[in-house]
Amino acid sequence: MRDEKVRLDGIITFIQVAAEGEKLRPEGGLSDSFPDGFDALMFVNVPTEDGLGLGGNVAVGFNGDSSGLVKGSEITILGTVTGETLAGMTFSGAALEFPMIAAQFVEEL
Known about the structure:
The chain has one helix at residues 30-33, and strands spanning 5-17, 40-46, 56-62, 74-89, 95-108. It has one domain: CATH 2.40.50. A hairpin with a 5-residue loop joins strand 4 and strand 5. It is mostly beta strands. The chain contains one helix and five strands, in the order βαββββ. Strands 1-2-3-5-4 form a five-stranded mixed barrel. It is 4% helix and 52% strand.
């Protein structure tokens, strides 16, 4: 699935936008894959019937105008599946892994 182009519709469940002139850089191994970082990082919930096996939450890195995008926004993403995952932990210590998408285009529905 690496390098596969995708179009997904979903709902933003978390978004972080870099301060002007700065970039967000994913932690861990992803920092090597995306050394230039992103203007915005978000988790997006996509329907399980997307046909790509990406149903649930995906991590999306985006360089572009993210003004107007907030938690709960319904969006369309055009991007590339990186074949990598963004990992983290819940407050209770459970491990989380989200497939990573490098978005070329994000638009609010």
